[in-house]
Batch of 2 targets.
Target 1
Amino acid sequence: MSGKRVVIAGMGFGGLRAAKVLAESDVELIMVDRNNYHLFQPLLYQVATAGLEQEAIAYPLRGLTRRWSGASFLLAEIGGVDLNEKYVMTDAGKVPYDYLVVAAGSRTNFFGMESVAAHAFDLKRLDQAEDLRNHILLMFEQAPREPDPKRRSALLTFVIVGGGPTGVEFAGALRELIVYVLSQDHPGISAAETRIVMVEAADSLLTAMPVELRQYAYRKLNSMGVEVMLESRVVGATAESVELHGGTIIDSHTLFWSAGVAAAELAGYLHGVELGASGRVVVQPDLTIMGHPDVFVVGDMACCFEQGAPLPMMAPVASQQGEYAGRTILAREQGRSLPPFHYRDKGSMATIGKSAAVAVTAGFKFRGYIAWLAWLLLHLYYLIGFRNRLVVMMNWTYAYWFQERQVRLITAKKRRAVTV
Amino acid sequence: MSGKRVVIAGMGFGGLRAAKVLAESDVELIMVDRNNYHLFQPLLYQVATAGLEQEAIAYPLRGLTRRWSGASFLLAEIGGVDLNEKYVMTDAGKVPYDYLVVAAGSRTNFFGMESVAAHAFDLKRLDQAEDLRNHILLMFEQAPREPDPKRRSALLTFVIVGGGPTGVEFAGALRELIVYVLSQDHPGISAAETRIVMVEAADSLLTAMPVELRQYAYRKLNSMGVEVMLESRVVGATAESVELHGGTIIDSHTLFWSAGVAAAELAGYLHGVELGASGRVVVQPDLTIMGHPDVFVVGDMACCFEQGAPLPMMAPVASQQGEYAGRTILAREQGRSLPPFHYRDKGSMATIGKSAAVAVTAGFKFRGYIAWLAWLLLHLYYLIGFRNRLVVMMNWTYAYWFQERQVRLITAKKRRAVTV
């Protein structure tokens, strides 16, 4: 061992990649996370739409430390970092570091709208996906026994805010869940009386994509039966309604929010550090904090400028930054240095429905079946763990052939207490 | 349709089998359950010991109604039955019936010991299995950072009450989880410092089994490292200790209770009906309630005497009774009658660990590998749903070859609320 200790705070895509780089070396590695698993967030929406069991997109972190000598894991909530004394404060005690990689990710940003925060579902954590699935399935259990037609209609109306990849993928998956599964499960409910309304503030969906792909996504969602409202904004919500800018009220018991993210709370606990837009930590070209060359910030938490704009908050950026942080630490220990971080944009993609996706890479644009197949394969590839890949592949194959989703379980936790 | 409506209250093994018989007929069938899935309870302990994802042992009931014309499902909590007006009271309204099959199963019986009820884990519901898994895994996260050796030891001590099949299977699976998985995951914890203590009031384990098999189970558990205390009783508990009759205190943060079951609460809501031991409903030879030939009670809720003793509360009894109730209803509609119910005892089995189980059938006794293999195959066979069988088989194969259990996830729900 070099004797140097590297602490990684947060085991999302950035933290995981940094850990993989460092695991092959002779530093002491301590991985800290509030969960004992790495979560494959891009597939959370499939858990929420009954397509996957939650366990399939989580990988136990001790499955990694078990194979890596010199690496350990600490299940803890991080409360802050003392940048001068060089330790991380956690609810399991102080963890001193020589190098620190801060990779705590992001949280949902409701832009101060408390009524929306109180009533909207968002997808950052595994339990949120399970809650949302339970809620959607419950709406279909409640609607048939609702005598008031207006209320029945509100139970079967689903509002999705944000036309980025998460919103689009969720909208498509929800529509397919309703058409192929729930309207078959409930003979009294026709897919035609259900509504999915997508509310997007910009003048198109998937604004990061080329214009043809945006239009394709719009047409495809429309033809599937999703009502897309562009240049519209949600300004408030109750448990049974959503209010748009301009005063329009949509009666709906389900509001899904994917219209904003901000850096995780931890960014605010780093005293004296400059924060950029969305509360992200402004980093140097080598991803360290100004004045603290031993502290790296990677992924959604990092505000890293390239060509005048901060890099987007997405998994490939986090992974590349995690890898860079790990390599830089190794290089420094060997007395070398690396050129500044540079993001290699390999493209992006979003799936809309069965055999329908959009993808762009190296200037090439794909849509339809070929993009959809590429999406499936890449997501399987990036998923962690052989067993998880098998389970996901099995579920996808099953859903493809049988048009059914067997994880349509309502697993609500509030049950009567056991009587003595 | 005959126009007759059959309501099935509870979709465990008894209700499910009755539904399958009636689904092939021309009655109107309404299945009521508080969950939207059938739960394969015999494998709950494998969810609790991180061997299976919870979704794999649940089957959505609407997957059945979808295929069965004339059958519908109602997600509701049943509050009682009006036997004279012939309707079931639920939180979704009154459900009138012509025939009623009451199959609400059982709940854990703590025999009035409130301190035990407050602190013990039991396994009846899916969320309880998840809670227990989370708790066990958390003990191993907390122990290494516990400075007090006495407390550390208590964190790593697991007390199991009841040496019946559930207790024995759970003890074996927990021991294997610790030896093969958790002590590898946590280099600071040796399997030798962990304790599993099984407390059984009788003078042997598996009292329903032949004596050789009881002895085999005892020897096997002992050799695996489980401390079996026979002729011992738990009389109280705190969050950190278990008290035995005689005053012995075992310091332990984990108490698992499988030492008693009683009929579900619903049995007590049937006014004027005679209850037997454990609150079970005393039934006639045709499984109906005295004076109410249109109301059948099957499974754990039914107190059905054969050869002077009530039949045991186990899945095969429930299934056969459910089938009998269904067939009797069909026969009556055709103006026929059936001979009284008779339980055909096909045997029983319990698995203790890898390649180790006991089984008895038709007077033949099996133990070891052959019994274990039979256990695996029969459980796969009785599991509902092709997809679930695949997932379970995959998990078992994976665990067998790789000695790992990937569902070792701590999915606790109490997380910080999202900030605006």
Target 2
Amino acid sequence: MKVLTMKCMKCEKEYPDAPDRYVCDECGTDGILDIVYDYGSIKITREEIAASKNYSLWRYRKMLPVADTTEIPPLQVGWTPLYRVHAVEKMLGLDNVYIKDDGRNPTASLKDRASAVGIAKAREAGAKTICAASTGNAASSLAGFAASAGLKTLIFVPKRAPRAKVAQLLVYGAKTVIVDDTYDRAFELSVEITKKFGLYNRNCAYNPFLVEGKKTVAYEMWEQMGFDLPDRVYVSIGDGCITSGIYKGFYDLMQLGLTDRMPRIIGVQAAGCNPGEIALKTGEFVAQQGDTIADSIAVGIPRNRLKAMRALKNSNGDCISVTDDEIRSALLEMPRATGVFGEPAGVTAFAGFKKHALAKNIDASEKVIILITGNGLKDIESAISVCTMPTPVAPDSETIEAHVKKLL
Amino acid sequence: MKVLTMKCMKCEKEYPDAPDRYVCDECGTDGILDIVYDYGSIKITREEIAASKNYSLWRYRKMLPVADTTEIPPLQVGWTPLYRVHAVEKMLGLDNVYIKDDGRNPTASLKDRASAVGIAKAREAGAKTICAASTGNAASSLAGFAASAGLKTLIFVPKRAPRAKVAQLLVYGAKTVIVDDTYDRAFELSVEITKKFGLYNRNCAYNPFLVEGKKTVAYEMWEQMGFDLPDRVYVSIGDGCITSGIYKGFYDLMQLGLTDRMPRIIGVQAAGCNPGEIALKTGEFVAQQGDTIADSIAVGIPRNRLKAMRALKNSNGDCISVTDDEIRSALLEMPRATGVFGEPAGVTAFAGFKKHALAKNIDASEKVIILITGNGLKDIESAISVCTMPTPVAPDSETIEAHVKKLL
């Protein structure tokens, strides 16, 4: 029994481990629970991990809150590539810069790590239908994983959800309810309906097991650097779940005696939606409208804010913001320098990293990882909006030759 | 020197191995060359392959026409998942059905296997700029791999190329020429300009090294089935390069004494563009217009037809076609049964497989692999066109509850 207890992030009340326990009875949705492990009972070594031939996040199964006998969903998830990016190092005068490309997951975002664990927990709870609210990546991830596992999904999306993102759910057969209202109302309804119909809930800032899936990205950073740690990780912040997961992963490694320090976690937000940046300075969260091209992180008030703040503070981290113009530049600059195409929220981390590097905030010798959380193909409209479509050229050889001479 | 010679598929004239030799001097673009190996000089065992910790197509480097010292591009490519799909087996009364998901490659299509080898060969040729003609996946693949390797690209696309596919090139910084004409003219121009400006050419039905990259998908099928072979592979056919690659991979394994038989390769075309199906029956290729939703295989006359026909004939294979309605059905049916979302040309293979299965053409005990060549996110517009967008529902709890009751 490696899970000791489930502990409220707000009042610290503890609850016994159960796959379908979500939030604190006293604090409600503010009281997201944290999974507390009996680390002494988890026996694992670097050698054992290195010897695994399971190239997915399930290579870390011993460190996950999933029973040994639980059937896991079949899609290959995690163990995404970590690239050393020399062109970026050269551009900014740094010695050790890496990109972790989580857009390579099955439905093309980091959310798949959470869905994989979520599906496993739904099975432990005996659920047949999983419910969630989302406008984007989390929902299509859930829909894809549920389809692969033969489970049903019921997903609430707000009226303003982009058609392309809704299509990604429908493709996988998710029962989709477009709520004629905001995301906040869709979230509330997903919780109401979960209770009313006895479904299983996969909202990441509600069901505490999902952050445990996301933490595996930190394990991989460590293992893929040759069982070494970066000095900093840059990650974009929306609800704060990924930031929380990165911290939990590194925290686990320390508790298990596998590492001895905590890398600095630097959260990056869009300037048009930066409640985390403000809260880290003032201690207070003030709801915002959420105006940015990076739709996946346009979250006016981060729902997993307590865990995210713990991550930033305990890692001696920071939270900064970048303008939409900086995000637009990064949409092109990063793929051109690295071959990795990220969606706006994904390259926001790159834009924040670049801002810090230009401000000489990073020592040249520091090992830096930029985490790309979603693939650019998820949102091709944003890519089109930053590209200049060339004008057609007459097809005769002479005209084409003259044109090519100018281009090369 | 594992490459013995480069041999014309049409007149059988042989040429010495060179990274920048493309087609036969006598037969021109009809005379695509085949890479002929000195199999006796390649010493490799199952044990050696199984022990490799390189989870990319480069685990088979000994079997690729790339020098040991050549620097390879950094993007992780190949070693895509092979999934057993029980829901599909159940649906069609078969015992052993697998999906190989090549949409999981870096730029989300199988073309990345060819680009990886193409970039390596461009380096051997000392090239700085790579040239290609394409409307879609091959071009964005080349652009992404070249960006990761610090090389330049010049890409010709026809006027009718969809904006979303052109954007994928521009994102990676490809110098893009929109030719005010057809794909055929863009192809011709790419060959002309390659010669005129001394560039390196990456057209897969022109540069014979690219099929050698694609052949690795067959090696992986074999290894991932536990060093066993499928009885059949279903694959969609456009220019015929992937079909040719699958055959070459299985052929290599036989020549190297690693296997003792050739699986049947079943090509699937769109009914609106089926020159391969007709040619296999009549022995003659008749150019077509290419009218189908599956744009990546809308090829009126397959340019790699000689290699593709060899693959189908020598493997005791077949070539069939499916209607656009069958492709549209597969666009939804496959992800809902498997969690794998393919683009129209990708799911065409699934549609062909299903057609054969329903016609009882496949024995229940046969091991079947369906190769999915591109990710559905490449072409979200086609997905939107087959989905029914739900109507927004009023956000009060009562209305939502009543609505959910009907849905579940």
